[in-house]
Amino acid sequence: MNAFIEELKWRGLFADMMPGTDEQLNKEMTTAYIGFDPTADSLHIGSLIPIKVLAHYQQHGHKPIALVGGATGMIGDPSGKSNERNALDEKTLNHYVDCLKSQLSRFLNFDGTEENSAELVNNYDWMKEISFLDFIRDTGKHITVNYMMAKDSVKKRITGEGGAEGMSFTEFSYQLLQGYDFLHLYKTKNIKLQMGGSDQWGNITTGTELIRRKVQGEAFALTVPLITKADGSKFGKSEAGENYWLDAKRTSPYKFYQFWVNATDEDAERFIKFYTFLSKEEIEALIDEHKTAPHERKLQKKLAEEVTVWVHNREEYEKAVKASEILFGRSTAEDLVSLDEATFLEVFDGVPQKELSKSEVLGSNVIDLISEKSGFLKSKGEAKRDLVSNAISINKEKVSETFEVTEKYLIDGKFLLLQKGKKNYFIVKAV
Fold it and tell me: pTM to 2 decimals?
């Protein structure tokens, strides 16, 4: 069996492939592509599997192409959806395309000196030249409506399965447009394989059929499973239904790290195969080690490290670890002061805040600050008693009545973290 397919199989990332795919990959360096529709200005962690598949493909000596769907993104893929996606205006869509191109370039080797260097393409570049009449005359006639209707993604929408509300002609045409992409890339870049999630099987095989019927060529399909958590629930969203994005402006590296480090034992065993490039031997050793002391969460920590470094960088990973340790008292005041505003506020999400002028904060008497000025404590008397009993911390360090706030104590130049006991927090924002 081909080494790339073996890799996918042991990692649990193989769903199906067309007959002959294995032989094609063994025969020669083969160019393959995966499509990414620009529905936002960032990809989210649901895109990590297709990105990783392309990266593995390149590591095994083949040539990967990442297609950004500037044209198909105007329509929206109906696969796995019960309602039609809202159409985007052209300016927004072009902005999303540019953002995704920039993001994808971080994960693959685009060094043009290598024979199997990755490429980025945008299907709008070839679709914009084709008129509707030309398309239905030259392409549409090669695929029957019966063939298109037989696809699961179409049948479910038309029969109303799962609460679906039917399908417009626009979405119905999506599989033909995706099929045309495959045909165009087959002819212009000798692409013989399209890969994607298992819900893409129908769209991909429409492309192989179009290649067979129109140019008497042979092309192949390979799919990977759709990822869910071990309990069957949806993967990649917070409890509030929010996506975890790959862009640090949308999802901070701290929050991203927390997603992975909080995986259950069962999910961590699966995810470390899916989302890291660690070898089979390394992963098996990690799993065995984790089972001897699961409370240490070594598997989750390694998973979170590998994915956070891959998506962001080691510096952001180390910041995320420091931020996480702050909550458990294993960090220094310097670690806390070094946090940026976004990370600090995420670590202490929900903690009450009071905004004061810098002149009220800097050099102020600590008793006044933690009582009358901030309202953290009810009175000066309570403040004094708590300070004497060593119950008050500022920026995670115990303070006395003589403590004085200076600029060096301000987190990101503007915050102070007040604390009474272990869990009673309060934030002062100096503006």
Answer: 0.82
